[in-house]
Amino acid sequence: MEERALSSRLLPKAEGAGVSCEQARVTARALLARTHLPQDGVDDVVTVVSELVSNAERHAGGTTAFTITVRPGLVTVEVSDRTTRLPELQTWAPERPGGFGWRLVHDIADTVHVRAHDGGKTITATFTEKQLQAAGTS
Fold it and tell me: What is the pTM of this model?
């Protein structure tokens, strides 16, 4: 990875709008392309980005901010939304559609933290370089 921090932040362009999954994925891929991560590691990060942003859209009034930061040995994804309601892991029910995104985020990211604040919450998912490099060898 780069020796210095790389970061990119997206905010909605209009009041009431949200950051789209496509915008967040394109931003994440562009930033991660400047690193030495294997494609599988990049894909893991982009999968988590997609899940967090789409969950914000479906369940939390839309994404109010998206930030991805790459530091030596660490990738951090932050997605803020409009509700303080905390996400819940759904009971495993393969016969029922949906409800797997939050579980997937927890399975892929090294750590996941949720912080409620005025006007909503921010979910932070972190990935270590070691984990992302290992994704490229599986």
Answer: 0.88
Each residue's pLDDT tens digit, 46-65: 999 999 999 999 999 899 99
Q: What are the contacts of 51-55 at 24+ separation with CB within 8 A? A: 51/101, 51/102, 51/104, 51/105, 52/77, 52/79, 52/105, 52/123, 52/125, 53/19, 53/20, 53/21, 53/24, 53/79, 54/21, 54/101, 55/87, 55/101, 55/102
φ, ψ at 29 (rounded to 5°): -60, -40
Token pair 């992302």 is found at: 132
Q: Which amino acid is at 84?
A: T
Residue partners of 72: CB distance under 8 A and separation at least 6:
1, 2, 3, 4, 129
Amino acid at position 83, single letter? T
Structure tokens that stand for 34 in this block: 């400047």
